[in-house]
Write a structure and sequence with these properties.
mainly beta; seven-stranded mixed β-sheet; 35 strands; 3% helix; elongated
Amino acid sequence: MCAQKVATALIIVCISSFLAGCGELDTVLPSAGTYRVNARVNDAALDDCSLVNAKDRIYPYFDSSVAADPDLTGLAVFLQTPSGQGVGKKIRYTLKADAPGQEDTPSSEQNPGEEAGQPPAESDQTGAEGQKADAVTDGGAEDQADGNRQTGQHTASAAPDAQMTETETLIAVDRLDRDLPFFVLPEKLDMGLYVMVFQVLGKNEVLYREEKIIYYLENTRFSLIDIQRYLPDVSGSHLIPPGTTVMLEAQVEADARLDPYIIWYNGRRRIGEGSLAGGGAFILWKAPEQNGFYTIRAEIFPQRPVDGLYGKFREISLPISAKAASAGYFSGEAERIAYWYQFQGNLRDSQASAGINRPLISQTQGPPRWMPEHTVYGLKVGAGDVYRLSSFSFVSEDPSLGKKQEAGRFMLRFKPTGEGTVFSACFEAGNPSGRVYLDLNFSGKSLGLNISGLHESAAAALDYSPGEEDDFITLYVDFAVHDGVFEAGFGTEDGGSAAAELKRLTLLDSLTGTGTFQFGASLKPPGAEKSDTGLLAEKPVPHLAILDEFALAFLRRERRGGHVVRNWGQGF
């Protein structure tokens, strides 16, 4: 056993001595497989952004020095389709000493402070895994000075010492590890995916092969302009409360021939993706409960990406702080609110107590669609986006009277985007023929309230024109049941309700205290007559409004001089 150990040690010593006496390790061991070849598009490496425009210049380079490599004689670069079919000519960079018809020419000296094997100094590479160079965060290569561009098609005249054949262009260079002339793109290249192939050449063989995916964009517009954030409620602060669901939008500019694909990341974790046409430019992200700055990144591609394709990206830093106020628009009415939908990326009732689930249910196919407006986002409603709560109660205990009362207030904050019924409610009766319907309509610059039964209807209207800065409408619809009468009135937050009259409807049967309400279409049976507001309540409109918030609160009553007085609240 001891003899074996001694023999092994002697062998190791001999090999070490032999290698030490031979100088450069590369002169003894084969260098094939140790090369790292890449290319930069203007100032960005293909591993940072592999999207190429017609005006871009592609410069091949070695990631590490090959100046002392005796086996290396040249570098061939050419394009293929993803199926392997060659496109255009091969460009072969060869040392002048090895080029046909060239005499041995010593390599030029390096510029002071510049390491061999690196791209020129203007190249901006981070080297960090998963991160892109800042130069490409907004189209990068497209924004370079004209001196770094070449207009029109690339031509071989840009490369000195070039010889051309039918299949390849031979370019003789002093050295291969830096300052190679740019790669000439084939003429009449169609937009799409290609494979850029790099072949490291020896005297009689290919020492190494590397492939990089590129997407050729021709002269099309394609950029990620910015990332915009939207909150579920109005906030004057740039801080975001913990746990808030934020909507983010990738603002993309692209040619009509493209349907860009967007991938969203939180750190390295992919949190969403999709095509622009499929809504991939928007994402809902729930803020963590911990304070801090969180970075979200969007990366865009001309199509659904394949492995090895790198797009353009932008980042946004979101400040999460418990100091930010987290309150809905109707927070001032919170004590009396019985149902409260704040549309924070979901259809839940935030007032539902533990164990009670009262979400709105979609009456149409597909998931909820959320839409931004100014700095907030809300729920899209219309004929294709109808949402319903099948059972709600409008009966509450009134401590001041010592009995139950049937009265309430619907509060809506929304932006009209079309004409029709934005909100509808049905109040159930002991007999179906005794039901009462309430519809809230919007037409042009007019808000309409219509209440109807089997044989009777009443309507009121308000002139309303949203302001330029904030075109959301805040509307209050009050209703009450007493002495065989259903009455309702409505008004806006800005006092426009002064013109609205209180409307009454005689009940054919006692109401049960329960009902149904929905958004985007009327609950009134088909075939209803045109109302006094001039609107058809059942008119189907694809996109009616963006809902920011909705609540149902119970109203208080007061005794004055022995009579019960309804507290209709603001505007009534």
